[in-house]
Design a protein that fits this description.
This protein is of the alpha+beta class. The protein has 14 helices and 16 strands. A hairpin with a 2-residue loop joins strand 10 and strand 11. Keywords: Kinase, Transferase, Two-component regulatory system.
């Protein structure tokens, strides 16, 4: 069957029809009605039975819900010789249409019509509230007719029948414009009712399959997020994984992760979208009703972000249906997750809301576990840094100081001028070395909370910390008013890029000299003012075929801010070594 029907899909592992007695009885009754209808066909309709049976077989193939609806529309139009067909899917409240699938309307015409009907008025609304077969010779003459929107094709003859799934109204099947200009006959109505019954069974199976597939995808997404968060990688990268998975699973235009801001609002810290640059760093103020609900652990579901008064940021104008979910676990709210769809997009179903809420809870639990893991690792690092600082102070500095005193004594006893000069220079170098070691000790003993806010100071701190494993202190230069012109978000990412570059130089380059330059007077190719970080070394250079994960992280950080990152020759002889460049707009 799969070779004959490209829309056919095998059910996922473990998928099976629920053994619900009421549902089985309903389906059996529907099948019996179909059989009785076929037995009682008038003689004039007998010739169309083979076509009806073929149509029923076609409708029952495949398990994808939307492709099933498309197939029902096309089959019904062919069976009843109608030019147009549509299925309006009733929303969960039964007050409107959540989806509208059409056949026979060209794509350019559908685009010109614009927004699809919501079922709140007109003939579609009447069928929604009174789900019984309806046949009209001229739908425009019916008092319930509410007019066609601009660009809508002209329609006169009309036939509508309800579609029931396991005894409940799923929607209505509409046919319009009988071929040849005639009216839909009783035979047409009879055939379409039989087809609608079979369609209800096919839709029921497709919905069960779709629900199983959805749950499988959300479970796989939760596993991917947990793995990423507990892999020990960068925390910002892990949050990006949460945003990417949420966007993919929800079928939304964006995936957004927000964390509490200092002023009580929520700051966007990770975005997965076509253009995330104008969203990162945006703070939803504490006065927003949505913020209070999210920080209180309450999920918020919005039908249209652009018109909902609770959505007060400029970002809401471009989105439609949205899910805003708290990331809470163990009574603690860590942040929030948003999955907005584009304007005019399909509303989120109750199943999607439930699965997304469960995903957010799983992501929050993984975040807490990752945070606890990083705390343990950080504690181990602090303990190791304290030990190194004590060893440097108690052993290395004391020995260097003793060596300096011995050299000074030897200098005084020597009568050779060249020896005295050379020993004096060696003593001066020892004094400089002792001062650099004391700076490194201070950096090792400094708590993160003590770090000053200035970007220059944070750069110097990273350089001093890197000097311990490197065995030497990288040189540095600042160009421009670095502290005053570089924003907090850009500065945070620049520090992370510097840390990554220095780490690569220590682990892979085998460098003896490193130069760090932070230039706040740089410009991008498009003329925008920017800050540029350059980290150059005289090491072995970038090996062919070597790992590039660190460089990819640098590039991703820069691109998320609208900048770029690349590498080139270093400062060794004949261009040996590597220079890593990272830049972002101010």
């Amino acid at each position: 069957m799969s070779e004959q029907d490209p829309n056919h899909a095998e059910p996922p592992a473990g998928f099976q029809q629920p053994k619900d007695a009421r549902g089985d009885a309903t389906e059996a009754a529907e099948t019996t009605d179909v059989t009785r209808s076929l037995r009682g066909l008038p003689a004039g309709l007998t010739a169309r039975v083979p076509r009806l049976l073929e149509a029923m077989r076609s409708v029952g193939t495949g398990l994808e819900l939307h492709s099933t609806l498309d197939r029902i529309c096309e089959t019904a139009a062919e069976l009843a010789h109608a030019r147009y067909a549509a299925i309006g899917v009733v929303d969960q409240e039964g007050q409107g249409l959540s989806d509208f699938v059409t056949f026979g309307v060209p794509e350019p015409v559908a685009h010109e019509i614009g927004r699809r009907p919501d079922g709140h008025r007109g003939l579609l609304g009447a069928l929604l509230h009174n789900p019984h077969p309806l046949r009209l010779a001229d739908l425009t003459a019916d008092p319930r007719f509410a007019g066609f929107p601009r660009g809508h094709p002209l329609m006169r003859t009309f036939l509508g029948v309800p579609i029931r799934v396991r005894g409940e109204i799923f929607g209505n099947l509409y046919l319009a414009e009988k071929d040849g200009g005639g009216e839909f006959s009783d035979y047409d109505l009879h055939l379409v009712r039989v087809l609608a019954t079979e369609a209800g069974i096919a839709i029921g199976n497709a919905r069960l399959y779709e629900a199983a597939r959805q749950r499988e995808r959300w479970i796989d997404g939760s596993v991917a997020v947990t793995t990423a968060l507990l892999s020990g990688g960068d925390a910002d990268d892990a949050l990006t994984v949460v945003a990417e998975q949420a966007r993919r699973l929800a079928g939304s235009a964006a995936g957004i992760v927000m964390l509490p801001a200092e002023d009580g609002g929520l700051e966007i810290v990770a975005v997965s979208a076509e253009d995330p640059t104008d969203s990162l760093g945006v703070i939803i103020p504490a006065r927003s009703p949505v913020v209070g609900m999210l920080l209180g652990g309450e999920a918020v579901f919005v039908d249209d972000s652009a018109t909902d008064p609770r959505m007060i940021t400029r970002l809401a104008d471009r989105f439609g249906p949205s899910m805003l979910l708290p990331l809470h676990s163990g009574g603690r709210v860590l942040g929030a997750l948003a999955t907005p769809r584009a304007r005019g997009g399909r509303p989120f179903t109750e199943t999607e809301r439930t699965l997304a809420t469960q995903f957010a809870s799983q992501a929050a639990l993984a975040l807490m576990m990752a945070e606890a893991q990083r705390d343990r690792e950080r504690l181990a690092v602090y303990e190791d840094r304290d030990r190194i600082a004590r060893d440097l102070h108690d052993l290395v500095i004391q020995r260097l100081f003793a060596t300096g005193m011995m050299l000074e004594s030897a200098q005084r006893r020597s009568d050779v001028p060249d020896v005295q000069t050379g020993v004096g220079r060696a003593v001066d170098e020892l004094d400089v070395t002792i001062q650099e070691i004391r700076t490194a000790i201070f950096a090792l003993q400094q708590e993160p909370a003590e770090a000053p806010s200035g970007l220059c100071t944070r750069v110097l701190r990273e350089i001093n910390m890197a000097a311990v494993p490197l065995g030497f202190k990288p040189s540095h230069r600042f160009l421009g008013a670095v502290d005053s012109v570089v924003g907090e978000l850009t500065g945070k990412n620049l520090i992370a890029a510097l840390r990554e570059a220095l780490s690569n130089a220590f682990r892979h380059a085998g460098a003896a000299r490193i130069e760090v330059v932070v230039d706040a007077t740089a410009t991008l190719e498009d003329g925008r003012e920017a800050v540029r970080l350059s980290v150059a070394d005289d090491g072995v250079g970038m090996p062919e075929g070597g790992r590039r994960s660190g460089l990819r992280n640098l590039a991703r950080r820069a691109e998320s801010l609208g900048g770029a990152s690349w590498f080139g020759p270093g400062i060794g002889e004949d261009g040996g070594g590597t220079t890593v460049v990272w830049q972002a707009p101010l």
